[in-house]
Amino acid sequence: xxxxxxxxxxxxxxxxxxxxxxxxxxxxxxQRWQSDSGIDAALAAQLVExxxxxxxxxxxxxxxxxxxxxFIQLAECCGRFALPEPAVEGALVAAPLLVDxxxxxxxxxxxxxxxxxxxxxGEAAVAVGHHLNPYVNFAxxxxxxxxxxxxxxxxxxxxxxxxxxxxxxxxxxxxxxLAWRPSAATLVADAELxxxxxxxxxxxGALGNAAQLxxxxxxxxxxxxxxxxxxQQFGKPIGVNQAVKHLLADxxxxxxxxxxxxxxxxYTVAQAATRxxxxxxxxxxxxxxxxxxxxxxxxxxxxxxxxxxxxxxxxWAKRGWVLDREWGDAGFHKNRVHEWLVQxxxxxxxxxxxxxxDQPHAR
Amino acid sequence: MNxxxxxxxxxxxxxxxxxxxxxxxxxxxxxxxxxxxxxxHSFVEERKAWERELARGGWTCIGWPQSHGGRGATIEQQxxxxxxxxxxxxxxxxxxxxxxxxxPTLIAYGSAEQQARYLPGIRExxxxxxxxxxxxxxxxxxxxxxxxxxxDADSGQWRxxxxxxxxxxxxxxxxCFVIARTQPGSVGHKGLGxxxxxLDQPGVTIRPIEQLTGSAEFNEVFFDDxxxxxxxxxGGPEQGWQVAMALLGFERGVSTLGQQMLFQNExxxxxxxxxxxxxxxxxxxxxxxxxxxxxxxxxxxxxxRMLAGGEDGSLSKExxxxxxxxxxxxxxxxxxxxxxxxxxxxxxxxxxYQLSRLQGLxxxxxxxxxxxxxxxxxxxxxxxxxxxxxxxxxx
Lengths: 363, 395
Prior knowledge:
Low-confidence stretches of chain A: 357-363
Mean pLDDT of chain B: 91
CATH class of the largest domain in chain B: Mainly Alpha
Cofactor (chain A): FAD
Protein name (chain A): Acyl-CoA dehydrogenase
CATH class of the domain at 204-358 in chain A: Mainly Alpha
Strand content of chain A: 5-15%
Shape of chain B: globular
Keywords (chain A): FAD, Flavoprotein, Oxidoreductase
Largest sheet of chain A: 4 strands, mixed
Order of helices and strands of chain B: HHHHHEEEEEEEEHHHHEHH
Domain Acyl-CoA dehydrogenase/oxidase C-terminal (chain A): 198-315
Oligomer: heterodimer
Domain Acyl-CoA dehydrogenase/oxidase N-terminal (chain A): 7-94
CATH architecture of the largest domain in chain B: Up-down Bundle
């Protein structure tokens, strides 16, 4: 078992981090809060240029042919910079869902392939409405919607979807509640194909959030560490106090112990997608817990400053609170782990903890 | 030990309940359940009028001695009043800083003239107070205050210069009690005075601080040659720290009872929300609701035990553990509320950044573990003062 990332993967992450470090200081995020769209078109275009939306699309369909292990650190990086643009959703949710349907339904393939190409080129935004998420982020900016009706998947242009804008506690988000009518013309995956598609989509969505939560948590702790060295009380930096050190050390422990499950879940999604439920759920739960603790303890370290609107920490904290509930909250994912464990043929035991449990044909 | 209420207490309970029932009506009916945490800015003028209505019925400052215009209510009666007030949905009390902090401090440490000058305004709901302790460089390290007070020999007035921060209710208050350095060059707890400063004067500027809740309950207060009469200093020019600490003792006293009743209302709301959306069928949510109830009862019993002790505001061990306990409990209640609401937890209603009561609870409670002594400072106090462990080196 080797958790290290290769040089290409690391370089891609560094490139994205450099771009976001330059283009996304906290005050730019605050500017987005004032804008209607909430999106910076120039940055969105740069993310397309980097190839983000094409990453998980097979080369045969014009993509980069990479997998979730190649993308996972990029998603984490988006969290680290609290990126408001729905780049993770586009790359890890919308594009792979289109690919799944293209593979499963040849009759819909031509138009979906054309849409996928537009998505990869940054010419069309595709939003996905999963039944676990009653509110769709950036619905107002989407050109197309992939929506669930029962297990079936329908594709609708924005003109056929009524969007009621609703506000999120995270001012970086632009949520919409959708009303729409399914028809034979909009159907792109029937209930049988759709069930498989939605299951995989849920896992990819939850994985994307888990990775972002990890990045958010990490960024909050870094800000708190810097503040603890800066802020003086009793004639010394507050960070010299054990009571303050331990708050952040606890976060570091949770974050690092969440990291491995998140990377493992990415591996399972890439290698054995049909059996990824438990791995993704494990990752989502622990990454969510790490982000919650990091938000709580970082605010505590900032003291009253951390409670102000002016303090940038709220950008990360509020995103963490929101992403933790999207694509299934902690209760939902703990239940999935539980259900997997009590299956009579669950692959548990020492021989599955490492190694064989990840093999696609182990059962 | 006697945990039973007597007939006189029950009669008192009926009296309170019936008065509130009659008076939280008409123009005041709209104030029911308003003005709590996250909702501080609702109906401010109406709530000030309500304070005066309470005063006319003799229901402000009931714990003050009769000689100072209070009822001399027993601890049990004060608990009953707070319970019935919360049960009736009485609005958040704007007068609480005056009633529970400034008043008791004046009664314990003020001169007869000061008591005569300030107690009636508090009791009658006419004058409102805020607290000027924290400064940008004096948070946990309160002894590091830099605000200066200089006595002008000609006018006999103190001139105050400096800045206070995190001052709740400053924009709505008439007076601020301020600790300021009277001895140039003094450090720490020495050389401080405790001043009662009128806010409506040219030398005072108040600037609200927007919080992550989108509202602004706290303020910065700037003093630029603000004037304070020599008669408005409590204790001597170097006794400010003792007065300030005694006041904090009152903060952890009876004033906590009203807060617990507010917590009870919030917990009731969380339970109601869980019933509404079916979250109460989730066994984990059920257990967390039970835990929240248990925690609230513990607070209640413990504060009764704590209040049965000294009445001079001095800290007992029981008082020291209280802040840590309630702030952590309240923060967890906020988490529970959000988990009960599920996906809806993130939705905002209305214009601007308008939080629902439960969202307000969640975000507002983030400050609970910080203000009035952070949880870390509380643990140090418990370890060093209650347990007698060696003190952490300072400075």
